[in-house]
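Hi everyone,

Forwarding the result from last night's run.
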Amino acid sequence: MTDTAAPQPATVVDAASYQRAEAAAGSHSSLLNKLRAAVLGANDGIVSIAGMVMGVAGATTDSLAILIAGIAGLTAGALSMAVGEYVSVSAQRDSERALIAKEVWELENMPDAELAELAGLYEAKGLTPELALEVATQLHAHDALAAHAETELGIDPEELVNPWAAAWASMAAFTVGALVPLLAMVLSPATLRVPATAVAVVLALSLTGYFSAKVGKAKPAKAIVRVILGGLLAMGITYGIGALVGTQIG
């Protein structure tokens, strides 16, 4: 007699709870984007400063020289991240403001054409012409600018990007990440500096890889392996170059 496994019950999904969770995730998209940027900034700080102190450690055993190089790299990197993020996000904010100003002018000077345009956008999404016009008409009556900004431009007029917040967040994330290899290098005994820093960097990169994967709803293992391999490669190359330069100079 052949044993047959009992059929497994289908997974029961609470549709209402699922949709509430999905809506909450959508409403937190801005926060998730900031978290993703912070994780990437920390990862950049870890890898770049790890490479720098490893390179210097390969060339010299002078603790002061390693510390000065690490602090200089941390400062330059953090400021570079802040300035770069401020400039980039400022350009994005200026573009968003220009697009919104254009929509304001069009709504004031050609409201009928804008209504027809919005209806056409909803019709292109699959609504019937009659329903698309009804939806567009109601949205125009409620908040025409918000409707056009969201549907036509993909912008929320009430939540424009903030360049100062982005700059400070990037600088802080880079600094926190950079402190991991720097402290591991300067606080470890001379004979253990390189392996101790490598271990600290691997652990830190494992965390950033894990969190970046969770934020992006991807599998953590692949992200962790990717960032660790990248960090080890950067450290290995710079340490080798430092050792070669130190030998030639010495």
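The CA atoms of residues 213 and 219 lie 6 Å apart.

Cheers,
N.
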